[in-house]
Write a structure and sequence with these properties.
The chain has 102 residues and is mainly alpha-helical. The chain has a two-stranded antiparallel ribbon. It is built from two helices and two strands; from the N terminus they run ββαα. The protein has a domain at 1-16 and 57-102. It has helices at residues 13-18, 42-101; strands at 3-5, 8-10.
Length: 102
């Protein structure tokens, strides 16, 4: 986890570039039972409520996985930016050092 150090953010860029968040498994939805409207009168109400709940669960799983993918993309991009900035800083220092030795 990055932390503030002297007004700058200090993090572990290698870990950030390897980061891979995993959202909920869509398999939790599984096979949906085919409730029948025959039998007890309450079974039709149960089937209707179950259908609404299943739809909401599917929506949640989809949105959660999209969010986890966004977090992964942002973390990896930030790690890459850290590494790019580090390389640029190193090149600048090497360039200054070469100028003094020149």
């Amino acid at each position: 986890m990055p932390r503030a150090v002297g007004g700058f953010i200090s993090g572990d860029p290698e870990a950030m570039t390897r980061f891979s968040a995993t959202g909920p498994d869509p398999g939790v939805l599984g096979e949906q039972p085919a409730f029948t409207r025959v039998g007890m009168p309450e079974s039709a109400v149960f089937a209707a409520v179950d259908a609404v709940a299943t739809t909401e669960l599917m929506r949640f799983v989809t949105e959660a996985n999209q969010g986890f993918q966004s977090y992964t993309t942002a973390a990896r991009a930030s790690g890459g930016a850290y590494l790019d900035a580090e390389a640029a800083g190193e090149a600048a220092i090497v360039g200054v050092d070469a100028g003094y030795r020149g």
